[in-house]
Amino acid sequence: MTRAMTNLIRVAACASLLAALAVNAAPSAPANIRVEHAWIRWLPANLPAAGYATIVNDGDNVQRLTDAGSADYGSAMLHHSRLAQGDSTMEMVDHLDIPAHGSVQLAPGGYHLMLMHAKHPVKPGDKVPVTLRFADGSTLQVDFSVRPANASGP
Amino acid sequence: MPFRRSPVRWLFAALAIALLASCAAHPQWQLDDVQGHLPDLEFSMNNDLGQPVTAATYRGKVVLLYFGYTNCPDVCPLTLVHLHTVLMKMGKAADDVRVLFVTVDPARDTVPVLHQYVTAFDPRIVGLTGTRDAIAQLAKRYRAFYKPETPNDKAGDYEVTHSSAIYVFDREGHARLLATPGSSNDEILHDLGILVHQ
Description:
The structure holds two protein chains of two kinds.
Chain A lengths: L2 H23 L7 E9 L7 E9 L5 E7 L3 E12 L2 E6 L3 E3 L3 E5 L4 E8 L8 E8 L4 E9 L7
Chain B lengths: L1 H24 L6 E2 L10 E4 L4 E3 L7 E7 L6 H16 L6 E7 L7 H9 L5 E5 L2 H10 L4 E3 L11 E4 L2 E4 L5 E5 L5 H12 L2
Parallel strand pairs in B: 4-5, 5-6
Antiparallel strand pairs in B: 1-10, 2-3, 2-6, 4-9, 7-8, 9-10
Helix pairs in contact in B: 2-5
């Protein structure tokens, strides 16, 4: 085998390997999941902001939301606000199950995405892409509309 | 057996009259009436422009006191949006109302941050900060609780658990009512409407 042929085979092998990796790396969208009314309450001074949305599962199986991320923020975490005996507290949430043929609301005073350390100034009127990751490895990118601090909804 | 029911009827009638009489004497508050159970408003702090203020600064205004912090993206904004909505609905009468947002996180809530935060919700919301002692004293005075939690990430970000009550004072600084984040806008609107006209 000539050296040229060996190189060609090597390049071809690498290319197919890369292609295979790319196919594997590209996550699939979660089956039967829709996200509606996605919005972020803007806060000044680069303060952490909360993201809200309604996640609808039209499928026959429960879908477990495990993580979120956004290219515009250093960190995005699933949080839950709780009022207990008059005290308000926030806790991190490991996962959130979206029931089959049901929906879960991320809404003020309950579940929300805590978005911290904006990488560039975010302002009302902007759209922020947020990627939701599910337990089955699927992901869904959703545009969240940035609303003013005193907005009462999306 | 109508003769056996009549004493009960009389009792109901008497109760109804007593209730009506009490309505006339006291407004039908929709929030919790705390008159006489909590002390008058008293503090010495700085507002969100860095100016020293005391309770006397707000005499003549109906005051709503709330403890919170700006790194609180969910519940504090929810409460401030409720209050903003109520103030908008009150129209001109809201000029006689001030919401005092007292930070329980003075280390991060500098005067400029506090100013940007409160004004993003409503011009009638005032941010208050002060020494740790001044904040602790004010919280203790109203049995409000707050506790910084352990940082939950490498960046050192932390949350502060805090009381969520809203204390309502009349124009003379007397504690009158207690609202919670669960109080509806209509309940707050109803009671503030009465208080501003007292």
